[in-house]
Amino acid sequence: MLTKGDDFPLHQTSEPIAFAGTDRNFYDRYFFNCYSPDGSLFFAAAMGFYPQLGIVDASFCVIADGVQHNLRASRRSGGERLDLSVGPIAVTIDVPLETLTLRIAANDGPLAAELTFTGRHFPIEEPRFIRRNGTRLFMDYTRMTQNGHWSGWLSVDGERVTVDGGWAGTRDRSWGVRPVGASEPQPPPQGNFTQFFWLWTPCNFADRSLFFHSNDDGAGSPWNRRAVIVGDDGTERHFGAAEFAVDWQPGSRRIAKMTADLGSGRSLLLAPAGPVFAMSGLGYTHPLWGHGLDHGPELAVAHDRLDEAGRGWGNPLAMHIQALVAAELTDGDGVHKGTGVLEQLFVGPHSPTGLTGPMDPAT
């Protein structure tokens, strides 16, 4: 099966580009977010290719006036991986690793946009994520992450908002293997995972970016953790032994404050400072619009919305979130104040922070 990708020198095996190995769960994904300078408006977008499943899906979400508006679309891919459009949602790679444009065509929903992301540094490469469930591969993927600034415009319910260089955010690309599409009919003998602890904290400061993430097991031992400070001059400083602590919002699994000791006299403080974004808007853990699900032979497009109450703790659609945070980085040359997001997904126990049970609230 030949596709447009076969005319580019990108082959990794003897197969055409349409064939991505043999694992049904292979995926290739774009993610974007952005926050206005005052934190009142937040948007996020994603596009995922699932070559073995023959599906490509995309989403665009905006929080405005406290309401999260979600646009989702899905189609069958036919093996073509260079068509970066799904119905009203399209991505253009203007300058690889530097500039990308996101276009949302006017449709029968409330959202439209033309937004350009310009990176402020070369993307960082996070450590490869490899996790097994017994003998079965659960995750094996790579992610590159980049902070930057946005320009352009977006429209919500016909009200147009200008986006200028003061709007900061993050974009990432990840590819590899993780659970996608319909659930596999035969789980591993020991059952599916019942514990997953995930923190991800890209932050923007005036002249530098900070990235910290941690995947921990139930005992609190990290199986993937890294902190990186990246200067706008491209200088990267990696900290492999960072430690963190959290204070919980009462009666929930949401963080009220997080501190991290990066090592070498550097530390980070994060505190909620704006809206909570439900990652289900981008398909994560969504029962109907999960990543790679087949919606039939025709293009499928859907819109819905979540108000602030619907994004509160206890709604299954808001267990996986990104919270806008105020960030304070103590670096070698002083204290720097900035803004970022704190992505949170906590399932099962985590001894150091006091989590117990499958979804028991923190105490």
Describe it.
- This protein is mainly β and 363 residues long.
- The strands form two sheets. Strands 1, 2, 3, 4, 5, 6, 7, 8, 9, 10, 11, 12 and 21 form a 13-stranded antiparallel sheet that branches.
- 0% of the residues lie in helices and 55% in strands.
- The protein has strands spanning 26-35, 42-50, 55-64, 67-76, 85-86, 89-95, 99-104, 111-119, 124-125, 129-133, 136-156, 159-177, 196-200, 203-204, 208-216, 222-231, 236-239, 243-248, 255-263, 266-278, 300-306, 321-331, 334-347.
- It is built from no helices and 23 strands.
- The chain has a single domain, classed as Beta Barrel (AttH-like fold), CATH 2.40.370.
- How would you state the average pLDDT, rounded? 96
Largest sheet: 13 strands, antiparallel
* Strand segment tally: 23
Radius of gyration (Å): 20 Å
Could you name the CATH class?
A: Mainly Beta
* Dominant shape: globular
Low-pLDDT residue intervals, each spanning 5 or more residues? none
What is the distance, rounded to the nearest whole angstrom, between the alpha carbons of the first and last residues? Answer: 55 Å
- Helical content (DSSP H or I, runs of 4+): under 10%
